[in-house]
Amino acid sequence: MPDLFAKDAVYISDAVDRDAVFSEVYQHLLKAGYVKGNFLSHVLEREDQYPTGIDTSPISKDLPNVAIPHTEGEFVNARLIVPVGLKHPIKFKNMVNPSQELEVKFWFMILNNDPTGQANVLAQIMDFLSHTPVEKLNKLFNFNSTDEIYNFLVENFKQKETVY
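Given the sequence above, the corresponding structure tokens read:
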């Protein structure tokens, strides 16, 4: 099974608003060939219609909130999780309660060109968040280097095999 992380698809953003972070990450992903030219408009539109902010307080009050943005597979060329560390918290609407805004500190952006696999990757991320010790997650969410983020996730993110 191919890895869900790529060394050249890990980011730390200094941007201060959601669309600016999306645009920044999109430019890198497009250049690396991971997404198609129409990806940015579709991921923004999908985020507006189906918010992906996750309130992590049920896991622990000590964790920052995360977001799991994604769009349809036809706009991407790979199956990856793109981790994005944010130097400044960004407002996202809550996935469960879209009228609520959350301050988000870290993204797990899903790129998935396998139409049957989106829910599977989302479930794996949720599993990772709920089974990784809070201290370790806080370390991840505060790393200042993409290499640290990549190495941590490769080591700690246990991928489940899909059984058919």
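The radius of gyration is 15 Å. Try to locate this feature in the token string yourself.
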